[in-house]
Write a structure and sequence with these properties.
0% strand; 3 helices; single chain
Length: 67
């Protein structure tokens, strides 16, 4: 019976070590990468014309969705 408990104890210890390393890595990554750094930057020139556009594809969808 002791042999089974020892194996379980070792497996549990290994799991806890791995989990703590993962939490530590996530904490470091969270401090290194900030939300403002991760956003894509677009030039003002590229922003014109973006947004809702009623294309043929959209019009076709509206026609099929009507009841």
């Amino acid at each position: 019976m002791k042999d089974k408990n020892t194996k379980t104890s070792v497996a549990r210890r290994e799991f806890l070590k791995t989990a703590s390393l993962g939490v530590g890595a996530a904490a470091v990554a969270g401090t290194v990468l900030k939300a403002g750094d991760a956003q894509a930057k677009m030039s003002k020139k590229g922003q014109q014309g973006l947004g809702y556009q009623e294309t043929e594809h959209v019009k076709r969808y509206y026609e099929t969705a009507r009841m």
